[in-house]
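From the shared-data thread, chain only:
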Amino acid sequence: MLLELATPKSRSLVALAVLVPAPTIGVLLAMYFVPGPVGQVFYGASKAWILLVPLLWLLLIDGARPNVSSPFKANGLALGTGLGVLIAAIIICGYLFIGKQWIDADAMRAVAERNGLSEQWRYLALAAYLCVVNSLLEEYVWRWFVFHHCTALVPRRAAVVLSGLLFTVHHIFALGLQFDWRITLLGSVGVCIGGIAWSWLYLRFGSVWPGWVSHAIVDIAVFTVGWMILFPS
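Structure, as tokens:
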């Protein structure tokens, strides 16, 4: 009832306050405060939360129905592909020329083994899920929902940057708990650039599909780098 009486700006502030901190909380619980099975439960709950909040908000607060457009009819797929290839090339070159000297490969292999990713088929299965499914879910959450509510608070061009920054926050913690400050800084800047690019694609084409194509290509590049580190032979 209170949300029905609130202004659009107030409702958007509530929407962002309810959703944006959840992945950061999940990362901190899973990787720092209660690592292990309990932490993974909390992390899974945080993922479920950010997936359900946009849908429930649409149904219960906005009083609308989901409307999924066809990816085959979406404009901007070529541009999304081009941006994805460009960012992917920067990631791989950045690793080969900079990151390779900064990353402790033995430490990463130890982390992968603790998480059951030292076997190639498990790594590929996780990569396939994250590149294809999780990237789409993140576009649904961070571009369709978060960017939309950012536009209620600031002008649309500023919302592109704001939503990109909000998308970056939990990645900063995830990177910082695994790498030194150089990789954390470099990776966080990369995530922010990606988030801004995908928000801009959403602003331009009004669809998550161009951003998803770009996002998936970038994630493929990230897991390619991971493969080079974990399975050098």
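The radius of gyration is 18 Å.
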